[in-house]
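Listing 4. Sequential folding, example run.
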Amino acid sequence: MEREPEPGRRYRPRATGKLAFFRPTRSIPREMPLQQLSDEQIQSWSRLEKDRWWFQNLYRGDLPQLTFRSALTGFILGGILSATALYIGGKTGISIGVGLTSVILAFAIFRVLARSGIISDFTILENNCTQSIATAAGYMITPLISSMAAYMLVTGRIVPWWQMIIWNVVISILGVLVAFPMKRRFINEDQLPFPEGRACGVVLDALYTGQADTGMFKARLLAFTAIWTGLYQTITSDGWMKLIQFKLLRLDQWAGMKEPWHLNERLDTYYYTLAAKLHLWTPKILGTDIRQLGLRLTLDAAMLGVGGLMGIRIATSCVLGAFINFAVLAPIMIQRGDIKSYTSPSGAIVNISRAEIVNQWSLWWGVTMMVVGSLVSLAAKPDLFTNAFRSLRARKSAAAEAEDPLRSIELPLWMSYVGVPVFSIIGAWITHEFFGVPWLLALLSLPLIFVLTVICTNSMALTSWTPTGALSKITQFTMGAVDRSNPASNLIPAGMTAEIASNAANLLSDIKPGYMLGAKPRQQAIGHVIGIIAGAVASTPLFYLLFLPPDKNGVRSVSTIVSEQFAMPAALQWKGVADLIARGFNNLPASALLSMAIAAVAAIVFEVLRLRTKGRFPISAVSVGLGVVLPPESCFAMWVGALIFGWHGRKNPAPGSKEHAFWVEGCEPICAGLISGAALVGIGNALVNVLLG
């Protein structure tokens, strides 16, 4: 139920901790619930009236927000969470949101430290600032697992780390500068919901208004899950086990061990080992070993967590796509000879494997499903286009500008008016110098930034969904139509426009909880820039460690970007479109062309049915396509995770029970613990392997 606000009400100051940079002179007491305008007030009040109401009733004046400790905590959490997001993105192509996770972690850390008497507790605005910084860092990984990785795969060129950092930071800051002129319209004026951002605001308010025990419970769930997952991941890691058994316990010296023992994550390995010794049956489909098809059974804790977050509909669609492709179509195509072994330029024999099945044939229909499904979903929402641009046409009167009550706390618009052209030119120059994109194409992509940002922001505001995948493909095909000879001409500009639009939309989603809680927008903008730097510093070196490890001679190769451990589905999607633009349809097998046509029709049918049934249709076209490029074992693990949490959610729908608190309310922290525990130990394992040679 909406709560009627009380215009004109002011609140007395409250004292804060010793480590705060400044003390508040006016703040909202913790016992007061969130306030918001009614629908009637949103429609009838002017922006000036809304700004006055917000300033008088919600603005928390001098309550500490962007302090040294909130910035440092956000920087550290952002680095950690961006690392886990990169790890999961390499496996699934999905960017996992980190907003609520960072809220819970920051709250728990400082609550524990405050109870220990070490420091004063976080204020609600410090916590909000921390989550904004951490979330901004998490957004930084998107180009690394998509356009940038695809560029390296297509060109065979490894981008120097410093070029990657500069490019990523410049375009992300450009996203901040593009976003802020839209903030007063979408948030202050239209009061759009931004569901994901609002969820963070509601959780923050609950933590600081009497439900701190719930927050600590979720934090403990996350911590315990992460610890146990980390222990499990350790015993499945070759690097950690080598370090423990050979370097610490010296089992290679006194026990004569030649290879360290570790639990094999692929459970079917034990059967195949026994089958080789006892000459047991080896499963095949149309004469092809199912291991070559990628049909393996694995217990991947991170994928269980991802499945719990994505839900049963999406996970089931992924499993369906994997089954159709690897259990049905791939064996037929191998039998036909459309997928086959070949000799590489180096003279090595490249055998049939899951990766070769994807690269040689199935990538095309999988990408078709994802692109067509995304475009249909986008086209079905014309209001995303019309409402977005309609809302930007209205301008404030000169009188309203003159008596603007928020002039001193909003980001000055001149910074965007000056910064956007400057950073756009810098971005175009970098795109030309670093990646060889012609100046004309680099500049031609710039006007698309504004259009895509407006659409993505409006979509994020209404649905928490940014259609950057579909919109980036439009940019790819547009640039490709101008220059087919150079893949960088469509990959890098499309990656730039997509990242700017996505970053701007996500920034406004992060500002929403700040608006709800009375934070200073100017400080949130600064925090976002801090997060950008944190994400770039953390994720870029990790990209080389995970996806471009050096061989025994210290040489890196793009061939390691896609591996059995990291399927890189997002990069393969971008690469598929770039290859299609460069090669055309004539070079594809007839069976691939037929599969693309069928996939396009199926995607349209699935999305239309989903729209007609208002989301009740159980299949997602985009997720079916994702299942084609993901390892089947990962799809199955995600489905198991979704099934477990979905079943417990149906079994315990009523709040109040321990089971509901654990499986439903605790779903996100448990899944975050599974993901972070597995990812951090997995990242550490890669580092240990490098150090041990």
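-- end of first protein; second protein begins --
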Amino acid sequence: MVFFLLIFEKNILRKLIFFLISILSIVLLSCKKNPETIENYSLFESKEYKKMDSINKLSYLDSINSFSSSLKNDSINRIFLFNLSSEYYYLNASKKSFTVCKNLLELSTKANDTLDIARSYNYMGDCYETSKRDSAYYYYQRAEKLYRLKANNEKVAKMIFNKAYMLYYEGNYLESEIMVSDALQLIKNSDDTELLYTSYTLMGSNFEKLEEYDSSLKYYLLAKKILPDLLKNDTDISKINNYKVTSAVNIATINGKKERFDSAKKELESVLTPELKKDWQAQYATVIGNLGYIKMKSGNLKGVEALFKEALKISINKGNESSVIYKYTNLGEYYAVVKDTTQSIHYLKKSLQLAEKQKSSDDIKNSLKLLSVIDYRNAPQYDKRYIILNDSLVKVQRNNRNKFARIEYETSVVEEENKILSTKNKSIIIGFVSLVIVLIVIIIYRYIKSKKLEIVLLLKQQKAEEEIFKLLQENQIKMNLAKVAEQKRISRELHDGVLNKLYGTRMQLGILNESDEEDIKAKRLTYVDLLQEIEKEIRDISHDLHSDIFNGSFDYINLLKSLINEQNELKVAHFSIDVDSTVVWKKITGLVKITIYRIVQEAIQNVIKHANAKACRIEITKVGNKELLITIEDNGIGFDSNKKDNTGIGLKNMTDRAKTLSSKLKVNSDLGIGTKIEVTFKI
């Protein structure tokens, strides 16, 4: 899969005269008495600048940047600095671009310009998008928060997309897909066709990685569908060409995986033009490389080797090592197909070596997988390396998931701290004492009012819980009474009907036994004895059924076990319960029972929804003569119980229920280990 190809190919002739003229203009500008404002915003759009090579452009930008600190802090000059940062960025001078952005952040903060602050964070994230993705994610998160304050949905969507992009390249495809969905919801009616295109493409890429090829193709086709709108809104031919090639390669890749080779071949040939070969060699190499691969997979080997070698030559000349890896791999697979094992191993080893240099985990895995099949003598070595790498990647992905979640949290914490500092700085005003008094009065009034409301709600809740408990108890009693009635009916049937008939039959046999024939007499005695045994068994059954084994009591333990059994039927996790047999439930109040029931119920739901656990154990133990200890323990993913934000609705509800009975709830949890909840009730 190809997500984004190189957008620009530069073929600029160096002209020193124009460079010198540009430098001279900057020097003259900087020699003015008060260089507070730059009004020549066409500096970066001038023909002279565009004709410079990269080295001269950087020198030109450095000259401008040298006096930028003396500029007046106004919106016009900040726009100029944003453009300066962008130029550094496109010239791959990320550190210099970041330095300008830091300066812009300070200037924007001093000017209290929220949009410029957000833009600064956005640009700072761009500087880190390929080197430190966690840092990029952090700055995008900061920008998103500020854009939300301004209700700028398109900018919010762009930041969400950027974060999703970081997650994608860290291997968190599911999380990335969720984020892109959020971004698409914000821009579904937007005119930003480029953001729509890139979002659809990234969504398709996520589904491709998740091996959901139908969904992947759906979004790739949606991206292709809006290409005509991009042509209307954007005049950058290089970028549009890049998008065309990207769409064709992505669609062809999915069709190839679904073995629709003719459709894949047709898609690639649609962009394989003479102009592509002449003006955009990198994209041309990508297209012919994919075309060769599709032909090979379809069984048509004619011209495949030539296509692969031509694509490899172009990629090497362009210095695109990532593309070279793919070409080596393609050649390795091709020679394996034609039974040239020596050549196949040669190219696959070159692919592995370059992938290791690039630290490209996916490419390393792919090369190892192919080598383990083709180079069978060394297969155990390759398999071992593959397993170790795969395990480490799983661990890294898990850590990355936690890392990005932690960034979300830490960003919120920083924002809250900044809000507090801002409030403190603005709090010194005329009439401060009076205002504080008023605030205190309001707070006290609201506190008292909220406490009264809380008490009313708690009382209502307690009443409702007791009513529910009574209903449960009444229902259980009715069930027990029905069982007893049925038992008595069966007992009467056995005693009055069957037993009497058996007794009569036995008596008849006894009479017949008076016959003098010894054989008949012995046989009949046997039957009489047998009937007596049956009679005794039926009498015992009748007696047992007639006894009030259910005694009309409310079976609380069975109620808890029924709750457990219901959850086990869902087969999400295995739940078990162990209840101390010494607990006398008749002596425990209904409110305590229903509170225990609700806490257990809430804990089970938390395990199902959030814990991702395989097993959960509930234990009810008597502690001394006055306390019950409820222990709920799972082996799920856990969380950091020391952090203040780990107060979800489920835990809050359990804590509140425990508080109503002056009980204590203790939570211990560790990431990757599980969660243990303990509640102590007085009885």
